[in-house]
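re the bet — no i am not wrong, look at it urself. input seq straight from the record:
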Amino acid sequence: MLHRHLLFAALAAVLLAGCPGGDCPADPSSPIGEEGGDEALYTGDNAALGDEAVMRSAFDLVRSVLYGTAGKDTTPLKALPGRRAFVCAYGVERTSVCDTAVGDDLAGSLQGAAERLKKAHGSAISKARADGDDVRLKIDVVTRGSERTFKRNIEKPKKRQVGVYGYWVATETKASYVLPSEVIARRVFSPSKQHRGVPRKNLVKALESRAGDMDLPEEFPYTRFYTESWVEGDPHGKETPHIVRLYRLHRFDFDELTEELLLQRTVWAADYLISSISAEGKIRYQYYVTRDRDSSSYNLLRHGGTTYSILQAYDRTKYEPYRLASEQAIRYLFAKCEEDERTGPFGGGPTKWILSPGNKVKLGGAGLALVMLDQYGEATGDYETYREDARKFGNFIVASLKEDGEFIYFPGLTPDGPPTSKDDSAYYPGEAILGLLRLYAWDPDEKWLTAARAASDWLIDVRDAGKDERRLANDHWLMIALSYLYQATKDEKYVEHSLNLARAVQYQYEKNKPAWKDFRDFRGGYYDPPRSTPAATRGEGLVAVLDTCRVAERECEWVWDLLLETIRHENLSQYDADMLWWVKNKNKAFGGWDGGLIDPSIRNDFVQHNMSAVIGTERHMAYRARKQELPGGPMWTQFNLKDGTTWPGVPEEEMTVLRADTQRYRGDTLWEKKWKAMTAPPATLDE
């Protein structure tokens, strides 16, 4: 450690002489600051850095320096050791400006960092606030650190560690840093397969953006530091914003799940999705939030799944722009379809199918297109507009079924042509079976049920035969399909396999438990590190297992508990108003779901699966609370068809409240404008 102390002493001497020509480098004293007092700061049961009241006083102190507001009591902060503090203002200049200091106590560290920030960027902060920009303050306080050496062109930490620690680097004349959250937000970590990790060039670029050219040698020492972090939440309508504790780029705390919150998250997500639908009906596929850039790739299979989820939101709310956007998305998908006549061991007839890029014909594309049309009928009550299209997709699926019940995953370009790929898919069969079973509910041709049952039996008796929870793969589409299949047949085999698949989810959930102690956001997640969509698809599957249990009149409380754990994890990944603090283009990102703990990009299927899981959870919550039936699931389908009515939706005044943040960030999309034009009263001659 002696060399590091000498280095900081030399750096301090240089800085005392002034820093002409630009901003001063970071405060050169210890990267950690005063050591000791860990229990009072962050490890004890009543740790100050986890106490909202203490951290409110920290923000009050910083605001008093930056904004000249009245000072508040800093006694709690003066009683804490002088760890290094970082103060950032987001929504200023190039997204954010930050500074740092070490004081005699934590109050001194915060005041010093705020004073340095004001000196360097005070005018820019004042201008942004005067312009009405969404300026939010963020505080990081260092808890611990360790000395390391960057030895290679790329550092490859375990992915679970990404965004948990930051980098402090000092030379003889300069010091700079990257905060833990910035490792993800500033793209210091690269997720690409070829360069996965922290490339040296990315880290150096981020360091030099603060300190200028640092002339770092090939190998250089650095301090890996950890912080406790809080940020101001959405300031709209508040004189003093509330504060939110952070972990990586998301909340530290999980949601307290309520029906109201789940409906709110559904509306935000549906609003995001329709904002991504163009006039021709194409849905934005992937949005890179850190770069504010769209992907040029596309996936027609996910187009169908995304449209299905928007129609689920329409079914729940009856917000007409959701329907308009979905109808245009359906037209776009139909323009990519081919038609012919095909038959197989289970029948067939006139068919409709999607030609995907690369001249591939995907069973799942037809499956999700059919699920989409099934959902359209149930949500709107209009089963005639797309009846023939739905039958054609159904015929294509039936014709793709082999005699033993296994599907051809990539059928040929012609009825007798060879498969367009030798690959298979774990999900295509479930998608196809679900499409057939939901079609059977409103178009009761026995061939739909016969084919669906044969395909399900092959999956259960052949693909999944003899597999316990350790070996069964997650198959959420099959879990959903089995809820409809059991309702149609009352065959206990389908209940048992549904529960087996749920036990596999439980096993996967339990596998992550050992990581919870060190990485709290692993709780309720799946994979290492967890991603939002694996949690969401398992959430959808568990919703369906609860449907199956309800039809079978079985108690499945353990499934409900597992679902809630899963949904709480999912909700860490939605860009709500509080979690937009670091985002460049808030209008575009709001309401979307990112890829997970270290993937801030948004893809349409991320949003689709998460929203579908949330809608289903709200539905079960309403039934458990007061036996209220909300749309969705096999029992609702049966009721809906028997009664001939659809769910009335959410009252207009309630939707206005639910969409208030959407309107504030994004305003009317093309689809609100179209609906307003359609429903506007005709102009009079006087007008």
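see?? DSSP finds 24 helices and 17 strands in the chain. told u. also The two ends are 80 Å apart (CA to CA). so pay up
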